[in-house]
Amino acid sequence: MIIWVDAKDVGTAFKEMLISEAQMQARLGEIAAEIDRDYRDKNVVVIGVLKGAVMVVADLLRKLHIDTTMDWMAVSSYGSGTKSSGVVRILKDLDNSVTGRHVLVIEDIIDSGLTLSWLVSNLKARGAASVEVFTALRKPEAQVADVHVKYVGFDIPNEFVVGYGLDYNEKYRNLPFVATLAPHVYEN
Ligand code: IMP
Ligand code: MG
Question: Whose CA is nearest to atom 11 of ligand 1?
């Protein structure tokens, strides 16, 4: 089933386009330049949080010029709905040790911050030399959560969004933009 063809379809399945493909790519370029400066003399292991961060990692890493390796973790915090369960479980662990390494965690979105605060403590406990966080999107609640996020793509309103890696019941990850879901999609 074709879910969208171009931006003018956004009014049907989706309520509103929040971040266009061009806006996201431009912002990633700005942050990549910051990361290049901040990690100029270090080598960094980028840890993507599956599956949502796949798009961000792929796009951000191609804009970096520093020495990096890539690893992945999968954790579950949300069930199949739109509310956080607060329970974090490792579904896939890292392939390599982070002991003594400078870690940059890449997240798709921070909502309650529960997932991330758990993840950061977990990585510090493994003896990482430093742990910083980049998130493509951040919701308002995350700003009060007890976790320091060094790089933020966009602060967005407290609405459920899909696209650019983010899903609703595993759908819509492939959209190149970020949109709010029309209520009729999840209210029936
Ligand atoms: P947190 O623990 O509440 O910060 O939620 C983190 C995870 O919940 C993210 O990595 C996403 O997988 C998921 N999530 C939070 N908000 C949204 C959203 O608006 N759309 C899709 N997934 C979301
Ligand atoms: Mg999800």
Answer: 109
Report the nearest-CA residue for atom 17 of ligand 1: 160
Which of 21-28's residues contact partners 24+ apart within 8 Å by CB, and which partners?
Answer: 21/176, 21/177, 23/154, 24/59, 24/136, 24/153, 24/154, 24/164, 24/176, 24/177, 24/178, 25/59, 27/153, 27/154, 28/56, 28/59, 28/60, 28/63, 28/136, 28/153
Q: Quote the DSSP letter at residue 7.
A: G
Q: Please give the distance, rounded to the nearest whole angstrom, from the Cα atom of residue 87 to the centre of ligand 1.
A: 13
What is the reported pTM? 0.90
- Whether residue 180 has its Cβ less than 6 Å from ligand 1: no
114 CB under 6 A from ligand 1?
A: yes
Is the shortest distance between the CB of 77 and ligand 1 below 6 Å? yes
Buried b (16+ CB within 10 A) or exposed e, 47-61: bbbebbbbbbbebbb
Residues 6+ apart with CB under 8 A from 38: none
- What percent of the chain has pLDDT above 70? 86
List active site positions.
Answer: 111
- Evaluate if residue 10 carries a pLDDT over 80: no
The dihedrals phi and psi of 38, each to the nearest 5 degrees, come to -65, -30
Give the mean pLDDT of 112-119: 87
